[in-house]
Amino acid sequence: MYATRPLSVSFGAEILDFQLSDAPAGEDIIAIRKLWAEHKLLLFRNQSFDEAALVGFSRKFGDLEIHVREEYLSPEHPEILYVSNIERDGRHIGILSDNEVGWHYDQIYLPKPAVGSLLMADTLPPEGGNTEFADMCAAWDALPEQTKTKLNGCLANQSYEAFNQAYSVPTNNKQKARSPDIHHPIARIHPVTGRKALYLCPGMTTEIVGWDPQESADMLEFLFDWTTRPEFVYSHHWQPGDAVMWDNACTMHRRDPFDPRHERLMKRTTILPPPHRAAPF
Ligand SMILES: [Fe+2]
Fold first, then answer.
1. How far is the CA of 104 from the centre of ligand 1 (A)?
2. Measured in angstroms, how far is the CA atom of residue 181 from the centroid of ligand 1?
3. 156 three-state secondary structure
4. What's residue 279's pLDDT?
């Protein structure tokens, strides 16, 4: 139905001739859902839409998460999280400033983790701030069989706290209470395609539950190197008008730093799974 252009050998597709602001519905949304599951990451270029349209479009794919960092939410639309280094009236309007942000799955620390994110470029620096994505289904498929056998059925500890210590600012006590460490399967089943994906990330995964600490650290180091090999990674160079929707059940991502003298504002919605496709997974 929609023409597409592949973004990398492994995954990702640009959807051509599509405007989110046209409020697509019905068959159009069914087609986008299929493409999203197939390609894991969809790029919509040359978009011009406001926050209401961003929320309206995102809602076609599931309920939207209100992020725990309420200080960085859009004043008009709390379903939108600002990712930005911009300061207004002495405070940052968004999260994650201008530094490098390490590999992570959005909201992997929730009991029912998000299955998707949609990120829209509002204000971009002239260079830097690229976002890399890793195809965690391909990374799982390519693992040696004995490693898969060893990992099947194992749980890993996911920590938002660890991520904040490395890349962000601390949460307050109320936010901490809403985002405690949690255990999830290392190999998760994708809720739509049924494919397995490695469900861990350097930014938030701290240990394999119940393993000897050294064995756990060695395995995680191996898996972090493995999943970020070039053949599993697509690097996105943002252009004005870009919107990227990724599958948060089978891709992780990271961000390059950029020059702090330039402003950058990205607007993100976070898509939750329907109840019948949430945990356990
Ligand atoms: Fe993220």
1. 6
2. 17
3. strand
4. 66
Distance of CA 253 from the midpoint of ligand 1 (Å): 6
CA of 109 relative to ligand 1 center, distance in Å: 12
The DSSP secondary-structure symbol of 64 reads: B
CB 205 within 8 A of CB 188: no
Q: Which amino acid is at 94?
A: G
Is residue 93 within 8 A of residue 123, CB to CB? The reply is no
pTM of the model: 0.95
Is the omega angle on the peptide bond into residue 273 within 30 degrees of 0, that is, cis? no
Strands (E), the chain: 4-6, 13-15, 41-44, 81-84, 87-88, 91-92, 95-96, 101-104, 116-123, 131-135, 155-158, 182-185, 187-189, 196-198, 205-208, 233-236, 243-247, 251-255, 265-271
**What is the distance between the alpha carbons of residues 5 and 7, in angstroms, rounded to a whole number?**
6
Centre of ligand 1 to C-alpha 263, Å, is 18
How many A from CA of 227 to the centre of ligand 1? 17
146 CA to middle of ligand 1, Å?
A: 31
CA of 96 to the centre of ligand 1 (A): 9
pLDDT along the chain (281 residues), means of 10: 93 95 92 96 94 96 93 97 95 94 94 93 97 98 98 96 88 86 94 93 97 98 98 97 96 97 97 78 70
Fold of 63-237+252-273: Double-stranded beta-helix (3.60.130)
247, β-bridge pairs: 116
Q: Quote the pLDDT of residue 52.
A: 95
